[in-house]
Amino acid sequence: MKFKATATAEDITGKVKNADHFCYGEETKLAWEAGKLTADITEEQRKLTEADLVIFQFPMYWFTVPAIMKGWMDRVLTLGFAFTHEKRYSQGIFKDKKAMLSFTTGSQESMFSANGINGDMNVTLWPLQNGIFHYCGFQVLAPQIFWALSHVPSEARGTMLEGWRKRMQGLLGENTLAFTPLDCLNDMMSIKLLL
């Protein structure tokens, strides 16, 4: 697709509200409301609107997604389209959709354990699974991880792919990961106001 990874003022067709103090989030929200986002963004938003399940497939780079995928998230998951202050987390816009990560690593699984040199994989994935997917309301499925793929024999890679194929057949019926619902944030804010 050659998707542009950088989020810039060029993502908006026509004039922006405040060119002297450009705020990407606010400007893309206004552009989304006015139908003035670029065609590449609106096409991806259309696909996301139609999807029941979104699988983010990638090779893990530097403990996260590659730049082009992060750019996709930055540009497509705009304020207004993917979240608002009122519609986020368990009350999010995509609460009826599922999302998951499917990726390869360059390290063995043991290196991503709580005591491993790379740290706990659940901690590594928290910004993606909670901070992006759950924030936008997605029901998040457990990730599909292909550990140290380039370091295993071809037979083992075949076994991994076969396991993934079988898992995909029942993916929509899987239980989702548990995250703190938005109600807890609202309750905590109410308590602080009372204090």
From TrEMBL:
Entry-linked Gene3D superfamilies: 3.40.50.360
Domain Flavodoxin-like fold: start-end pairs: 30-162
GO cellular component: cytosol
SUPFAM superfamilies per UniProt: Flavoproteins
Listed transmembrane segments: none
Keyword entries, A-Z: Oxidoreductase
Keyword flag Magnesium: no
Keyword presence, Transferase: no
Molecular functions per Gene Ontology: NAD(P)H dehydrogenase (quinone) activity
Domain of life: Eukaryota
Family listed: Belongs to the NAD(P)H dehydrogenase (quinone) family.
PANTHER family named among the record's database cross-references: NAD P H OXIDOREDUCTASE-RELATED, NAD(P)H DEHYDROGENASE [QUINONE] 1 ISOFORM 1
Protein name: Flavodoxin-like fold domain-containing protein
Originating organism: Champsocephalus gunnari (Mackerel icefish)
